[in-house]
Amino acid sequence: MAKDKKQPRPKAITPKGFRDYFGAEVTQRAEMLSKIAAVYHRYGFDALETSAVETVDALGKFLPDVDRPNEGVFAWEEDKDWLALRYDMTAPLARVAAQYRNDLPSPYRRYTMGPVWRNEKPGPGRFRQFYQCDADTVGAASVAADAEICAMLADTLEAVGIERGDYVVRVNNRKVLNGVMEVAGLSGDEKAAERGIVLRAIDKLDRLGVEGVRALLGEGRADDSGDYTKGAGLTPAQADTIVDFVTAGANGLDEGVIDLIEEATDFPGAASNLPDQSLVLKRLNDLVGSSEIGRAGVEELETIANLLSAQGYGSDRIVIDPSVVRGLGYYTGPVYEAELTFEIKDEKGRPRNFGSVAGGGRYDDLVKRFTGQEVPATGVSIGVDRLLAALHAKGRITTDTQGPVIVTVMDRDRMADYQTMVAELRNASIRAEVYLGNPKNFGNQLKYADKRNSPVAIIAGGDEFEAGKVQIKDLYLGAKIAESASADEWKDRPQQFEVSRDEMVTKVRAILNGQADG
């Protein structure tokens, strides 16, 4: 009789494009989300949680390929219906706004936080699951709603620890770009391909510079490796119109001009402070000429600038910048992007700007898919993982978070006493735990405490219980002494001492406070 084939053991590996998050990372993200939610709540937005799964029908045309519903999303067929994991937070909002339109207030202001999934090729720092944190206003046609989102975004960045001068919120408008395209002779369905190349070219301004963009607007360009990218084939006059548009803001200024500007500002190094918003708006107004939609877009930008100025948000925080084009194929009016302006080192040690951490804009056509009626909407999405990475890069947070106080076990028959001790610490709002492994080897208990990054260990055996005492071991001090102190300092700075049982909580708190101050 043949033996049954042995079932191979499953491999303990994370699926490609996904990752696991441990203690400090989870805690830091939760703390950041709490700070963001506090700002959103202060602005009057209500929390909303939607299902992680939507029908492909609800996701609709915003899928990368509607003919293949599993392209770009994680999708499966169930009872002849296609379902998919949400790939952003906006499509579910559109469905909610349509489904509950008779019950929700109008305008409806909501924020939401959670993971989204993209069935895309993963890469360094690019995962198939990541967190988004969105805030949107549905049902408000006024650009005052857009101005409010920009102000809230600036406040949010500062609330999580990005200092003023280290970020800028850049604002553009799809209508202005449409007007410029119209002036350049690029409007109409027959010019859709050229417009797509133009948008991609503008998006490369930071990396390629003005001349690189100009080449892509014309015949094309070859990169350093010799790879050739075909251009939009615009005439020199058309290319000039587009270049004049994208360089109308601070990003398009000559470096020498930027240096002169920064010398006169309160935030040296922040090239986004100037030029003056009125000069940018005047330049844009000239560029759109008689284009009706272009002039409407410039007026909207002017209104946003005035509303923000009235609230005290100057160009050190929020600027009009025509070089912002991300999402312009999706948005219908104002579009905004939060960029961190400080330098970090890349994997090869080269300095570069950190870049974008949030983006959004006005999308007045999304809810219309469900209701047949145009419903104005605007909102922003913050990349939480990017923000956390930025704070790590600035040294504002580290992965070395403090663990719990460890109550060691010297006598397993006294487990009830140890549990009483840990309860007293917890009741005093001190994070603590009893060692629940094998207590036979005391050294292993201290190794466990070290692995947990514990600040303090409580030690009590038969002699201590009989005398009404406990030993308190300052693990943080011990690590510092072992790291840098001489042998004499070990004597002068005792890391372990005995206190009466009723002083335990007070002494532990004093040590924790001292470590925090240090």
From TrEMBL:
It is found in: Cytoplasm. Keywords: Aminoacyl-tRNA synthetase, ATP-binding, Cytoplasm, Ligase, Nucleotide-binding, Protein biosynthesis. Belongs to the class-II aminoacyl-tRNA synthetase family. One of its GO terms (molecular function) is ATP binding. PROSITE patterns: AA_TRNA_LIGASE_II. This is Histidine--tRNA ligase. Its EC number is 6.1.1.21.
